[in-house]
Amino acid sequence: MLPAALEESASTAGPSKARKRIGIGILGVLLAAGIASCGGTRQDANEPSGDFPVQIVSADFPSRQQLAQNTNLTLAVANSGDKTIPNLAITIFTASNVNPGADETTTGTTSTTNDLPTVQGSFSVRSAQQGLAIPFRPVWILETGYPKLEGETASAGAEAAQTDTYAFGALPPHQTKSIVWNVTAVQGGTYTVHYRVAAGLEGKAKAVTANGSIPEGEFVVRISTAPPQTRVNDSGQVVPIKPSDITGQAGNAQQKAEVGGSGTTSTTP
């Protein structure tokens, strides 16, 4: 008769059970370590709750740009309260302009959008083309090393897990951080770039304006697809043509006046 290979004898049952207990113990330790390393402690445990007054001191981004033009988006945010802001965070997101009649020179106006978009890249918009594996296409390319604090060479603003958000660390009372995003336009059209300021990443510390509203705004920007008018200067560099470059050239008095020339109207009868 064949032996019962899967049966336990009195001599093997003890060691087998001991091995199982040891294995379960090791597994428990590993699971506990894994939970701790994966955020067993709440990330917002140390973020204070409450409102933190801020002021958007300045917000600059040219309202008219051209393809391949490199420019800066600059935001200066001040802590106008008496408490340190735990972690100044700025969310930036871009949308196509759905209202062609909108004032393209308006900047810094309050956005009525309360819900942030799904992650798409701060300077990208959703493409209308069907079947794209990645439906978002950049309008501007953010240059390497940006954002930066104005006047500094080191990059700043760690990109946070939150949607299109950059975190700039603590901001003491009555101090200001001026932040620069350097971008290059790569897609023509009219777009609205929204920005929103927060006092933390977990929602417990809330940034507010003097009237208690969310500190936010927008830039409406038109990117022209027309190539810029250029010339080659005496140093062999390609530079944009300025009105002063063509002053004195052929043209009637009105044309010269429009470009800053000194043409005079004829008085011959």
What do you see in this structure?
This protein starts with 9 loop residues before the first helix and ends in an 11-residue tail after the last helix. The protein has a domain at 50-224: Immunoglobulin-like (Sandwich), CATH 2.60.40.10. Residues 1-12, 29-43, 99-114 and 261-269 have low confidence and may be disordered. With 269 residues, the protein is mainly beta. The protein is built from two helices and 16 strands. The longest helix is centred in the first third of the chain and has 28 residues, at 10-37. Strands 1, 3, 7, 8, 11 and 13 form a six-stranded mixed beta sheet that branches.
Looking at this protein, list some descriptive labels.
single chain; about 270 residues; mainly beta; Immunoglobulin-like; 6-stranded mixed β-sheet; globular; disordered N terminus
Mean of residue pLDDT values: 76
Shape: globular
Count all strands and give the number.
16
CATH topology of the domain at 50-224: Immunoglobulin-like
Secondary-structure map:
Blueprint: H1 10-37, E1 50-60, E2 64-66, E3 70-79, E4 89-96, E5 124-126, E6 136-138, E7 140-142, E8 148-149, E9 158-159, E10 165-167, E11 176-185, E12 189-198, E13 205-208, E14 216-224, E15 230-232, E16 238-240, H2 253-258
Parallel strand pairs: 1-13, 2-14
Antiparallel strand pairs: 1-3, 3-11, 4-10, 4-12, 5-6, 7-11, 8-11, 9-10, 12-14, 15-16
Brief rundown of the structure:
This protein has helices at residues 10-37, 253-258, and strands at residues 50-60, 64-66, 70-79, 89-96, 124-126, 136-138, 140-142, 148-149, 158-159, 165-167, 176-185, 189-198, 205-208, 216-224, 230-232, 238-240. By secondary structure, the chain is mainly beta.
